Amino acid sequence: MRPLIGEDPISVFLCGKQVGRSTEDVRRQIQWFIKSILACDAFLGEDIPALLRPKISDDHLSIETEAAERANVIAMLLGSPGTIAELTAFVLNPQLRPKLLVFNELKYKGEKTFLNLGPLKLLDDNSLIWLPEDETAALQVILASIDLRAAQCLLSRRAPSKLALTTDEYITLLYVHILHPIGYKDLTSAIPLASKQVDMALRSLFSYKVLKKSDNLYWTVHNWMDRIALSGSERAEIARVRLAVMGGELVDAEARKRYRLAAV
Questions:
Q1: CB-based contacts of 68: which residues, under 8 Å, 6+ apart?
Q2: Which of 19, 46, 141, 214 is 20 to 30 Å from 165 by CA-CA measure?
């Protein structure tokens, strides 16, 4: 999955052992793949501007932590004391831990070491990847894992967030939907909430854009159910109650008139 036109690319912070020649640095190979094939941004610790010309007073860990906070994915190739130190610091940071994607050699799996029983134990199963001994196969696993995590980040970014309604907001929204079109007086008479509670709930629901108002009658927008977490059975029950109310109002000429006005 690739970013859409105009969409900010996923940012990947690559951490691992730095080697002398860039042509031999597996991180640079991965960085090229991420940028060229996955169309994501990728940077190494030594690419961080504040570390290009560091001051004696600079705290390198704080600088890398700030860079990690800006990244969407933190891919860590274990293999050096420095990377293990970074992992320990990052995994203890609640903001950074969900971003971690840690790669370690399969031969170390199951060993009773500080690394396995400490920092790595704090990761969930999807954030710790054990690599096969074959270098080519290991590189394929790394690239596929980063590709999957980047795609998950894009999907999460694009998915509309669900509204976290209070109880008063939820009750008010349901009553408006079931009884709409409905005026304020009839709503406050029907709903089991105090007028002040209804007023506050209505203000919030209008700000969430799940309600509209026409000729002093309240009306739910057509896609409001997609904005909150509702199970299939809850949707069906709401529809059943709404249909029952509508069935009763169809024989009421005044109700039909209100409905036509609100639908305009």
A1: 13, 74, 90, 93, 96, 99
A2: 214
d(CA 217, CA 212): 8
Alpha-carbon separation of residue 146 from 127, 149, 163 (angstroms): 10, 5, 30
Structure tokens at 17: 């052992």
Q: 117-121, 150-154, 164-168, 255-259: lowest mean pLDDT where?
A: 255-259
| Contact call for residues 181 and 219 (beta carbons, < 8 A) | yes
Residue 20 token pair: 């002398």
In which residue are the tokens 């170390």 written?
A: 108
Q: Quote the tokens at residue 106.
A: 């399969």
Judged on CB neighbours under 10 Å (0-12, 13-18, 19+), 244 is: exposed
The DSSP bridge pattern shows strands 182-183 and 211-214 to be unpaired
User: What tens digit of pLDDT does each residue of 60-99 get?
Assistant: 888 999 999 999 999 999 989 999 999 999 999 999 999 9
Q: How far is CA 179 from CA 174, 205, 243, 261, in A?
A: 8, 16, 10, 14
List the structure tokens of 197: 């509670």
Q: Which two tokens stand for residue 250?
A: 């169809």
Residue 228 Cα to chain centre, angstroms: 15
Rounded distance, CA 46 to CA 57, Å?
Answer: 17
Q: Which residues pair with 53 in a beta bridge?
A: none
Structure token pair of residue 137: 């196969």
